[in-house]
Amino acid sequence: MRLALLLSLFFVLISHPALSQDETEWTDLFANGDFSQWQSLSGKEVSKGWTITDGVIERKGIKPGDIVTRQHYTDFELRFEWKISKAGNSGVKYRTRGKLGLEYQILDDENHKDGKLPTHRSASLYDLLAAPDSKPIQPVGDWNHARIVANGNSVEHWLNGEKVAKSIIGSDQWNHCFENSKYKKHEGFGTWKGPILLQDHQDLVWFRNLKIRELKK
Prior knowledge:
It contains 3 helices and 13 strands. By secondary structure, the chain is mainly beta.
């Protein structure tokens, strides 16, 4: 009888393996298939111009506005997928205050006018550090896998499995880029604690599988 009980417990365990520590730390920012973890930049409910269909978040309609997470973050890893429309522009901002923040740029590099500026192209640390021309980007209308790692003074942008931008806040590289950017007048920029922001740039853009985990010191 005891052996049968042990065997029964064994088969339960192998049929329902425990999640690893890595898996249990992740938070799905659209776990409920709705915007319950999000709000408008002004703190109101998310506009109907943002929709979710079969797990895909779409920005459409007339000026629905930026949306932000209700929770604030400083050190984290964020993974998500995105695709952009032809000549489209958007971005994911983090360590934000209002509309200001570090930005993972999302752009149709070839057809949007911002594509002329290297630091404004997709996966770049917007207006600070350009992703290389050799980055592994998918054609407009196809999904890209993105990853942002913000940990202390280190900031990384990844695109389709490849690290395409990295900066250390306070380093010579950072200071040079910062002093030549539009952000130079904002003290503490890049170090703030704030919500994750999905940008409304009046163009069609899609997101899915947004998952975040906070990084512990």
